[in-house]
Write a structure and sequence with these properties.
single chain, 281 residues, alpha+beta, four-stranded antiparallel β-sheet, 7 helices, 25% helix, 33% strand
Length: 281
């Protein structure tokens, strides 16, 4: 049985879905664009694997960061970190913002009626990096769904790069959190609960405590469960620390400094009707 649990954002256990249309469109429901994960030998073909089953306990592991955008819940769960947001302000989600220390996946921005930045929260998404290839599992899924697969399905499998994924993101956080901390703003890492479990075992997390607004660095972890016949994200834990806490985890150090007005100008240049944060209650 294929280990692919979500294919182009749809649960693979649902046989009532029009899989032929899904496979033809190759769309991601969360970005409203073609799935960006394409096959190296044929970039016209999107792989479309969002979530896979892994390990002896068959845990559902998310391997695509766009999967975390479901219902835009991760942004709703960061609203309380906008210290200077007031009723009547506009909310915007600005992707890929460059700051000292690297690029931030998303910035949740509060602006006044003239779209002048009043507050912002940096948000970074991290899902699991795989080793090997998920392609054979994808092709096995197509067979199970009744499609003809015109190639021999390889026995090669995939693994999870727990160590590299966690070490890489923590190093990146160290360089970025100092920028947000110097501005007295919050920075949030969005991860799945499985990755947090690994980090707690491999790094010293004793000083990373239950979330406090006074801390600049926040961890929001999500579980993925079958709720009402579909997979759904659920906020599991909120933890926090500061730049010194991240340094303690890694024994590294980095310096960054940027003024509020500088980052506000960057954000205002990217804000438009297309970045408006709209959600249903």
């Amino acid at each position: 049985m294929s280990k692919v649990k979500e294919f182009f954002t749809y649960p693979t256990f649902n046989m009532d879905i029009n899989w032929a249309e899904i496979l033809s469109c190759q769309q991601c429901r969360y970005t409203h664009k073609k799935c960006f994960k394409t096959r190296k030998s044929n970039p016209d073909i999107s792989i479309g694997t969002c979530t896979v089953s892994y390990g002896k306990d068959n845990r559902n592991v998310i391997i695509c960061p766009h999967r975390l955008l479901e219902r835009r819940q991760i942004f709703v769960d960061c609203l309380h970190l906008l210290n200077s947001h007031t009723p009547g302000n506009e909310l915007h989600i600005v992707p890929e913002v460059s700051i000292p220390g690297g690029s931030v996946d998303y910035v949740l921005v509060s602006t006044d009626k003239n779209r002048k930045v009043k507050d912002f929260v940096g948000i970074e998404l991290q899902t699991m990096d795989t080793t090997g290839t998920v392609w054979p599992e994808r092709q096995r899924l197509l067979q199970e769904l009744g499609f003809e697969v015109n190639e021999e399905i390889s026995e090669k499998t995939f693994g999870m790069n727990w160590k590299m994924t966690s070490k890489t993101i923590l190093v990146q956080l160290l360089h970025k959190i100092e920028t947000f901390e110097s501005l007295n703003r919050h920075f949030v890492l969005i991860i799945q609960d499985h990755l947090l479990e690994y980090m707690k075992k491999e790094f010293s997390f004793a000083h990373v405590t239950e979330a406090k607004l006074g801390d600049s660095m926040h961890f929001h972890t999500y579980s993925l469960g079958n709720i009402g016949g579909t997979y759904k994200l659920h906020l599991q834990h909120r933890l926090s620390t500061d730049s010194a806490g991240i340094s303690t985890l890694l024994g590294l150090n980095a310096k960054a400094n940027i003024q509020f007005d500088e980052i506000a100008r960057i954000l205002e240049s990217k804000i438009s009707d297309n970045t408006m944060f709209e959600f249903s209650i």
